[in-house]
Write a structure and sequence with these properties.
By secondary structure, this protein is α/β, with parallel strands linked by helices. The protein folds into four domains: 288 residues, Glycoside hydrolase, family 3, N-terminal domain (TIM Barrel); 229 residues, Glycoside hydrolase family 3 C-terminal domain (Rossmann fold, 3-Layer(aba) Sandwich), CATH 3.40.50; 119 residues, Immunoglobulins (Immunoglobulin-like), CATH 2.60.40.10; 79 residues, no CATH class. 32% of the residues lie in helices and 18% in strands. It contains 25 helices and 27 strands. The strands form seven sheets. The chain has a six-stranded mixed sheet with strand order 10-16-15-14-11-13. A five-stranded parallel sheet has the order 1-3-4-6-9. Strand 14, helix 16 and strand 15 form a beta-alpha-beta unit. The longest helix has 21 residues. It is globular, with a radius of gyration of 30 Å.
Length: 761
Amino acid sequence: MNKPDIQKLIAQMTLEEKAGLLSGLDFWHTKPVERLGVPKSMVSDGPHGLRKQDEEGDHLGINDSIKAVCFPAASATAASFDPALIEKMGEALGDACQHEGLSVLLGPAVNIKRSPLCGRNFEYFSEDPYLTGKMATALIKGIQSRNVGTSIKHFALNNQEHRRMSSSSDCDEQTIREIYFPAFEMAVKEAQPWTVMCSYNRINGVYASENPWLLTDVLRKEWGFEGYVMSDWGAVADRVEGVKAGLDLEMPASGGVNDRKIVEAVRAGKLDEKLVDLCCERILNIVYRFVENAKKDTPWDMEAQHLQAADVAADCMVLLKNEGDILPLNKEDEIAFIGEFAQKPRFQGGGSSHINCFKTTGAVEAAAGLKVTYARGYDVAADDAPAEMIAEAVAAAKKAKAAVVFAGLPDSYESEGYDRSHMRMPESQNRLIEAVAEANPNTVVVLHNGSPVEMPWIGKVKGVLEAYLGGQAVGLAEVKVLFGDVNPSGHLPESFPIQLEDNPSFLFYGGEPRGTEYREGIFIGYRYYDKKKMKVLFPFGFGLSYTTFEYSNLRLSADSIKDTDTVTATVTVKNTGRRAGKAVVQLYVGDAEGYRNAIRPVRELKGFEKVELAPGESRDVSFTLCKRAFARWNTAIHDWWVESGDFTIEAGDSVANLPLKATVKVESTVELPRNFDTNSIFMDVMQDPKALGVMKPFIDQLMAAFSPDPAEAVSEAAGEAISEDMGAAMLNYMPLRGVLSFGGGKVSDEMMAEMLRRINE
């Protein structure tokens, strides 16, 4: 079908037809206008597989969806630190969508992991906005390369499930811009998702679905978004206000209720019909973009995608501990696989992203042909493991050269719809791990979880492999990694605190009854732990390998730049071990002077690259840093701004291991507006070179007032009371009006007003 002239098409529609286009036909389809030949189009839950419902639809999956392939969830794919790998995965998802006639896959979900407790963390990428943005952009590019749309979600500040449909995320402007917006911004600017899904929650008291600042000012005018905005399912509060704000499509169908409200508002003069037309135009542009490029004859080879899912999962796994090189295991040794997840793995989260898999492969099945025995060890549905289960596991462990315990979080512990109440694994599994480790010193734990867990047994096991939620072929991937067919190369996309109470949002997370306050501000994840110099269980970016890497020779293309320029940082990485492996080079930027006029993180991720190296091979990896790498959000100008000074550039393999460091001086080309008044303090004025020149006579006068006259005798007590440091401090913190109080009557109000006029110019 060729794309018609959309504006002419809309001009032929009745107001009722136009209003009808702005809500769904049912759970998964946009409305058609049969009279004019406008087709319906179908969307489907994602983002790591298809949850297409052919017959009756529902949001959370009570009704079955078609058989499909479940790739690793975002919690896992972010650990790959490999956008190219994820783009390929996106291409596979796009092929599946074309085969099934799906116009938009609902994802990726790019909300930041503010707390380990968020029930939907398994579907989110990271605590870091830069990593999140890069991974989301790659997935979107991959899916949309197949002429299938994506719906990046949930815009914005949807960082909890608790009261998610009514709660207000109360957050300051700087934190929103530096932490919670950048992933959306990067994806929109670099990949142009066809649609954006707004979140349920309020943002500083205003529902996202009716927030013109969010949906129009920022998303469209500032970032240049070109597609349509849809609601999360049931996220519309006031439909007419939503149209005014820029919410194009309400999902699912409202049974005509909200359509009538739009018609009534237009006829009452409360809603401009041109806004309704604009919403229709944006929706139809996407509907016809898919229709023009639909290829239902696209093959969908599920078996091939099953193997691809295994390859992706293997590259995402993070080796957290490998004491005494317990891994990789020897295929000739007797190995005990213990734990229900070894046979029936947990590989995806609960809720709207749950895939009806056409097949699954657990580790026991994948290890067929090896000398592997299996003991169940625990019942995933029960918190208490029967003594006979543990006894069976211990007996199996004692007979084996090594024991591998497959553990993690049950479905009931993390799901869409509610948050976790703690960071612990089931006590039955902790007890099992302790018992097996006591029976066999060569114990390895493989974890299946969508977010961090506490590890009270960490000192008693030799190995820990974090598999996250690795998709339907996770068992194949685990066996490949455990036995050395794949060298693990994943790195943590989030910090693992020792205990929940260490998390920076701990005191403020959840919020009762109407909102949650983001009081930790920009200090989430490693930004907080670094600033506090606080120990964590495992740091952001951490990941071991079966080989070793050496980082050296960090050099910069320039020692000094303006903020309109770029600087290139180059690092040499070498494989110093005996196996081929993949290194993840990470680059962090911080203020060498600790940020003079703002409280800032010690360092922030601004670049990463994954490189595969043969033993002895070395390679140069380069990163180009522009203004945004050095800038912070300045609320005075509501824009990104670089404070002139020295910045550190550090490189290594995690936020806690950065052996290379260099410094670059960056000069700001943006002069902040001067808004000094009589209550401004001298220290702030003196930091402005131009204002300092104007103020010099007054400063000299005040310094004299606070300094003893050398010609006069000063008692010892007086000399001790007023030191030079105290005099300087008194001046620094004194408001400008102090010249009236301490100037000996030599400064008048008129002189003060003239001085302020001059320094503000």
